[in-house]
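Example 9 (inverse folding). The structure is encoded as follows.
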């Protein structure tokens, strides 16, 4: 009713919806899985009224989770690229999803995680404190962000 035809809803969740690198992150993971499920439900329920997608960042260099922070080295170990991503990596995907080029993508949970989803089990060689530190670093603030765009808008 409020969104025009072709409107986009882009949720920002977390890769922790799919992979938990260690103990102490189950509640956070559950909340991010809820975002992923909500996104798919909206896509199904609203059908042709627009596009609903969820972007799931992994370790991204931000003020809350800096590349040189206390947990950075542990998190780099659980990505295939061995590094943090940049906010522009996430913004580029969001921009694409907000535009007309993504006109057949809906109900998707898209990872921007440097391969974090591939290597989480690889973290088994880390000590318990290192894994806990990595999990803590991925949950700064524990917030979900939803961004809604009218169909013609671009970031």
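The amino acid assigned to each position is listed next.
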């Amino acid at each position: 009713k409020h969104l025009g035809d072709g409107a986009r809803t882009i949720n920002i969740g977390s890769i922790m919806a799919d992979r938990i690198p260690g103990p102490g992150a189950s509640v956070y993971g559950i909340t991010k899985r809820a975002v992923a499920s909500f996104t798919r439900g909206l896509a199904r329920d609203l059908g042709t009224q627009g596009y609903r997608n969820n972007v799931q960042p992994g370790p991204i260099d931000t003020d809350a989770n800096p590349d040189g922070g206390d947990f950075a080295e542990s998190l780099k170990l659980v990505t295939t690229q061995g590094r943090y991503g940049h906010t522009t990596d996430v913004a580029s995907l969001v921009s694409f999803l907000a535009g007309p080029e993504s006109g057949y993508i809906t109900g998707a949970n898209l990872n921007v995680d440097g391969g974090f989803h591939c290597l989480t089990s690889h973290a088994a060689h880390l000590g318990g404190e290192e894994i806990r530190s990595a999990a803590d670093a991925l949950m700064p603030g524990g917030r979900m962000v939803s961004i809604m765009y009218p169909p013609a808008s671009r970031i």
